[in-house]
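Worked Example 4.2. Consider the chain below.
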Amino acid sequence: MVVKPLCPLHVALVCSAATALAFAESVERCMSSYEQGQVLRKQSRLLEALADFRECSQRECPALARADCVSWVREIEEVIPSIVVIVRTQSGRDVREAQVSIDGKGHPAWSPTTPIELDPGEHHIEVRVPEQQPIVTPVVVALAEKNRPVYVTVPDRSPPGSLLAPSRDDVARATPLAGTPSAAVLAPPRDDATRPSPLTWMVGGTSAALLVGGIALDLFAHRDLTELRDSCAPGCAPSDVEGIKTRMIVGDSLIAAGVLGGVATLVMLLSDSSGDVVGARPRAGAATAPAWGIGAPLPEWRFSW
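Applying the procedure from the previous section yields the following structure tokens:
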């Protein structure tokens, strides 16, 4: 009697393992935003905290964390301050072709009618008008201060061909404030923990259990098959042979799921230990090592029984 391999069972187990790993990564990302957003909120970095809370408010996140994040998003949106930058000339004419940057960060979509959300505290507003020196205006915004107008006055343009020199007031007004930073102010990197997260240990333990269970089941099935062949071959009962082969297929499937989980655990460990932060740059002269798996051959797992 020809025994057909149970391919659907094999595929189902592998697909289930891949789905579980993807779900685990999504949960880890949600919980990281959940915890980091609370830290940023205590530091009055409301813009970054708001971005993290919106991340953990997604439908894929756990229900309890999602409910807290949705509530925190509403709370921050109610108190986060905003300003409206209005640029005018000395004669009172509105200027719309200006370039506005705040704390070194440009706002290409600036308009005199669009509010700009900021963290509470001191900020420096730089306005650039064609053919004029940039003007920097310091401003301090308070918590829950909404749509505060900030007026920036620029000198009137001299008519073409004018031989009149600018006045002292014009020169003083067009001179940037001393000590104003001209480069973009980089946000400090997050203080991410480099130790493995609890989720990494959970995935690793589950993968090890699957791998050990699959190997044990496969070994016992091979032993029973050998004993069956020695005792009754070729007249063994078909049900006994099919039962042993079914256990072998299930054992191979558990081994495959354990290997996939081990790969995912290794990736999570590397991610936890890397400590990379978006926007961070290595120090000058610091040695950098290539990441495992980039430009290096992947390890091979071979099982032979």
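The first helix runs from residue 7 to 42. The helical segments are 7-42, 46-55, 63-79, 168-174, 198-232, 238-274. Compare this with Example 4.1 before moving on.
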